[in-house]
Amino acid sequence: MINFAICDDEPHMAEEIAEKLCLYMKENQPVSFHIDTFPDGSSLLNSNRDFDLIFLDIRMNEPDGMETARILRERNYRGLVVFVTVLKECVFDAFEIQPFDYLLKPLDDGHFRRAMDRALQSLKQQKSNRIVIKKGGSCEVIRLSDIEYCEVQGRKVYIHQRGGRVSDCYEKLDTFAGRLGSRFFRCHRSFIVNLGLVSGCADGQITLSSGGKIPVSRLRERELRQALLQYFCNS
Question: CATH number of 132-234: 2.40.50.1020, 1.10.10.1100, 3.40.50.300, 2.40.50.140?
Answer without folding.
Answer: 2.40.50.1020
